[in-house]
Design goal:
disordered N terminus, 7 helices, N-acetylmuramoyl-L-alanine amidase activity, hydrolase, 7-stranded mixed beta sheet, two-stranded antiparallel ribbon, 37% helix, alpha/beta, Aminopeptidase, 249 residues, single chain, N-acetylmuramoyl_amidase_3, EC 3.5.1.28, MurNAc-LAA_cat
Length: 249
């Protein structure tokens, strides 16, 4: 995608904000949206099929979500940890709470359980990958003090991701160790995961977005490209616009 096409995409987001009718629920310029780039440089999360750290994907997409929100008028959107301090999950929520955050969005990229991986050696380098699963997934915590609103916000994000034509993955509901997450919305890809500290420690509605499965070789290539990144950032921004307008599923 060219820079001109990317710029046009942001213009569409700005137009969306300007033409969405009255923002009945809030004023965009006053809504504080905290964006968490999951993990950090020292504890970078999963490793992609090509050997890239998850944190690299997370930080890039989190910045694009922030930029998209800015373009839509949400000028108080901010990155919780822009310099990579490797804050613990509860510490990220604490920082968001201190900023008076109204919505918290934690950006991640997905992996799979070890038994589903395959290894291959190319050019003397061995990589592990899992092509069985692909798609986004969304998580909220029932322990969050705004659990119902967190679920509603997750559904708004899921609706917009589906509108972009993106699939979701059901593998977190599989009856295997490390998974077994309740799939609360089997149309929009929303799971309940009470133990995620960045979600349950938040004083606002909070959603964790697994943007896609980076251990899947095909999906990793998509997630590394501008089209998929634009789709995800645009979907999240539209969900925030709808939330601000007072829309609920």
């Amino acid at each position: 995608m060219t820079r001109r096409a990317l710029a046009a995409g942001w213009c569409l987001i700005t137009l969306l904000a300007a033409t969405s009718g009255a923002f009945a629920g809030c004023l965009p310029a006053k809504l504080v949206v905290a964006i968490d780039a999951g993990h950090g440089p020292k504890a970078p999360g999963a490793t992609s099929a090509s050997g890239v750290a998850e944190y690299h994907f997370n930080l890039r997409l989190a910045g694009q979500v922030r930029d998209a929100l800015y373009a839509a008028g949400f000028t108080k959107a901010f990155l919780i940890d822009p310099t990579g301090l490797d804050l613990p999950p509860a510490g990220r929520a604490k920082r968001a709470n201190a900023a008076g955050t109204a919505l918290l969005i934690s950006i991640h990229h997905d992996s799979a359980q070890p038994q589903f991986f395959t290894s291959e050696t190319v050019g003397g380098t061995t990589r592990r990958f899992c092509d069985h699963f692909a798609g986004y997934s969304l998580f909220y915590s029932g322990r969050n003090r705004h659990a119902d609103d967190s679920l509603a916000f997750a559904r708004l994000i899921g609706r917009q991701l589906r509108r972009e034509g993106l699939p979701f993955t059901r593998h977190h509901a599989a009856d295997v160790p490390g998974e077994r997450r309740p799939l609360v919305d089997d149309e929009l890809g929303v799971y309940r995961y009470d133990g995620l500290a960045v979600l349950h420690a938040a004083a606002s509605p909070a959603v964790l977005v697994e943007a896609g499965v980076i251990v899947n070789r095909t999906e990793e290539a998509e997630l590394a490209g501008p089209t998929r990144q634009m789709q995800t950032a645009r979907a999240i921004t539209r969900a925030v616009v709808n939330w601000c307008a007072g829309q609920r599923p």
